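All the exercises in this workshop are built on plain-text protein records. The record below serves as our worked example for the rest of this section.
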Amino acid sequence: MAATALSACWLGKGFQVEEPDTGGATSDASADAQLHDSAPAADRALLEDGAGMTDVASAFDTAGARDATGAPDAAQLPDHASANDAAHLPDHTGTADRAPAPDRYQPGSEVLLYDGTGLQFTYDHNGFLPLIQPGDALPASNWISPVDYYNGEFQIRYVISAPADQGPGRLQTCIWTMGDADGDGRNYFPESCSGQPGFDGVGTIFNERLVPSQWWEHEGVPLDFSHPERFLIRVVLRGPSGCNVTRHNVSNPCWDQWPNYENMVFRVTIVMVGVGDTFSGWSSYP
């Protein structure tokens, strides 16, 4: 197992929960300038030194994760996420496998994107733990061709392993595009997020059959899967209600719940399957 990490975030057609079966929640977006101006003095200092995020990543809740038609639950509103300074992102936590050769698993298009164990949120993560950052090794340099993962599937597994008395919460995987190669003028844009599967404590939860082309997209702008080298992928920590366990000045923060998660240890596994192929199953990833 190598150090550092890779990941992905998406909202798909559904998921299965082995332990709890709870849904997610959303929060509203706020612009970078609004966050800086409205944040308390302590948070402004945090943002100015590059440690903070301008908004919280969110999408549809688990109950609103897409139905059989792939349509999102209209009652659930998406939430905008962005960050302040890529140069000051916290280091990876835990250990992770680099992506294996594409022919390691069957079908041929199936690749392990990320498998990190011993992961823990730290105070500096501020509710956003990096899995993949620009410059990390990837299993393919283009995720739309020759294998189409954008219209394929992502399979995500979270395993909460400690402490034994870990309380409930939710985890969410989100992706941001770093840099301004698209000429938009904004960093951390476009962006997209998965649902928020819940957990009641130690155990395994799945967020499965996620089709990236159907995920929530901030401002309706899709991610460019032909340039995954620009992706920043993080796990977002949420409370049982879907609130954002963060110090950032957002609409639904709950940093007071941080003591409930500071000792939590977990694993994240993300597998990509090309369009038209079928996932080999979690038994391939013990």
Notes: Residues 173 and 235 are 5 Å apart (CA to CA). Helices lie at 32-38, 41-48. The longest strand covers residues 153-162. The two ends are 14 Å apart (CA to CA).
